[in-house]
C-alpha cells in the first residue's frame, strides 16, 4: 500500500486538505493527534517524558501541555529529545494502523515530516502552502495567538521553499473551492502507477 505524506507549515491548512481526502474515501493518519494520544496512553512514552522534563510534565496521567510547550520551545535540545521519544512510538502505531486499512493509498499527515526525516518512509509527499497573511489570520482566529507567538513556532519548521525542494506535489490552499479541486485532481494522479506521477504537480 502506498503511503503519501501530507505536510505544510503551521496554519497552511493541512487538516482541511486531509478532510478532502477523507471525503474521497482515503484513510488519513494524523500523526500529531496520534502523538497527543500516545502522550496520554503509552506508559513508556509518559515515563520517558517525565524523565526528560520532570514531574511537572504531567498531572496524574494527563500531560501538562502548556508546561511541555514552554520547556521545549525554549530549548531546541529538549525539543529534539522529546521528538525522539514520541516519533518512534507514532511510527510503530502508524505501521499497525496501516495494516488495518483497505485502500489504494493512505495519507500520513505530519507537521514536521521533512524536519524529522519522515518523508523518507513515504512514496510521495504533498506540501500544503498558503500565503503568510492567510496563515497568520487562520492561526489568530483558531487559538488567539499573537503574531510574535506564531512566528516563534514557525521558526521550528522549515520554510516552504526548502520543503518544495523535496515535495512531489504542492496544494495551494488559499481558496476552499480551488483546494478541493486540487485534491480531486491529485487523487486521480495517485491512483495511477507511481511512474506516471511526474516530479511536481
UniProtKB/TrEMBL annotation:
Pathway as given in its UniProt record: Cofactor biosynthesis; coenzyme A biosynthesis; CoA from (R)-pantothenate: step 5/5
SUPFAM superfamilies per UniProt: P-loop containing nucleoside triphosphate hydrolases
Domain of life: Bacteria
Catalytic activity field: 3'-dephospho-CoA + ATP = ADP + CoA + H(+)
N-terminal signal peptide: none
A GO BP entry: coenzyme A biosynthetic process
Chief site of localization: cytoplasm
GO CC, alphabetical: cytoplasm
Molecular function (Gene Ontology), one example: ATP binding
Subcellular location(s) of the protein: Cytoplasm
Protein residues bound to ATP: 11-16
The entry's keywords: ATP-binding, Coenzyme A biosynthesis, Cytoplasm, Kinase, Nucleotide-binding, Transferase
Gene3D superfamilies assigned: P-loop containing nucleotide triphosphate hydrolases (3.40.50.300)
EC number, as in UniProt: 2.7.1.24
NCBIfam families, per the entry: dephospho-CoA kinase (TIGR00152)
Family affiliation: Belongs to the CoaE family.
Entry function: Catalyzes the phosphorylation of the 3'-hydroxyl group of dephosphocoenzyme A to form coenzyme A.
Protein name: Dephospho-CoA kinase
Gene for this chain: coaE
Amino acid at each position: 500500500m502506498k503511503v503519501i505524506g501530507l505536510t505544510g507549515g503551521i496554519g497552511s491548512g493541512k487538516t482541511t486538505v486531509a478532510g478532502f481526502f477523507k471525503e474521497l474515501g482515503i484513510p488519513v493518519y494524523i500523526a500529531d493527534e496520534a502523538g497527543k494520544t500516545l502522550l496520554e496512553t503509552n506508559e513508556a512514552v509518559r515515563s520517558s517524558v517525565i524523565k526528560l522534563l520532570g514531574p511537572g510534565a504531567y498531572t496524574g496521567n494527563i500531560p501538562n501541555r502548556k508546561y511541555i510547550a514552554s520547556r521545549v520551545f525554549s530549548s531546541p535540545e529538549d525539543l529534539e529529545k522529546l521528538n525522539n521519544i514520541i516519533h518512534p512510538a507514532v511510527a510503530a502505531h502508524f505501521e499497525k494502523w496501516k495494516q488495518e486499512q483497505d485502500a489504494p493509498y493512505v495519507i500520513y499527515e505530519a507537521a514536521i515530516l521533512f524536519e524529522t526525516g519522515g518523508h523518507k518512509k513515504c512514496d510521495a509527499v504533498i506540501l500544503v502552502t498558503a500565503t503568510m497573511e492567510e496563515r497568520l489570520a487562520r492561526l489568530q482566529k483558531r487559538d488567539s495567538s499573537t503574531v510574535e507567538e506564531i512566528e516563534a513556532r514557525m521558526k521550528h519548521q522549515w520554510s516552504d521553499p526548502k520543503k518544495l525542494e523535496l515535495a512531489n506535489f504542492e496544494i495551494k490552499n488559499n481558496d476552499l473551492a480551488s483546494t478541493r479541486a486540487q485534491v480531486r485532481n491529485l487523487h486521480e494522479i495517485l491512483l495511477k502507477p507511481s511512474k506516471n506521477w511526474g516530479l511536481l504537480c
